[in-house]
Amino acid sequence: MRFLLPLILLxxxxxxxxxxxxxxxxxxxxDAWRFDVTVSHPDTGWDHYADGWRVxxxxxxxxxxxxxxxxxxxxxxxxxxxxxxxxxxxxxxxVVRARxxxxxxxxxxxxxLN
Length: 114
Known about the structure:
The protein is mainly beta. It is built from one helix and seven strands; from the N terminus they run αβββββββ. The strands form two sheets. It has a four-stranded antiparallel β-sheet with strand order 4-3-6-7, with no helix packed on it. A three-stranded antiparallel β-sheet has the order 1-2-5, with no helix packed on it. The protein is elongated, with a radius of gyration of 16 Å.
């Protein structure tokens, strides 16, 4: 039991470096949607940076992805857009999740489309 606490504390920094979706604005544009997503991440350069975000159905199906091609060391948080995302009829909510080049996908933010 006394070894459990040090293991928990050692694992905590891994979560701290994951990308965070700070805000999402979803706008319907005809039959598709535009997503303006604000992400924060302690980018350190090409070896560790937020390299994308995606829009998912609640079951995890990817509906659209924005690839981020470079680090944003001096721009935190930052906002990028993705247009033309097809959302299946009857979908009331989606999840937006960001990824980094070291830890992969972070926690998602649920977005109400109504």
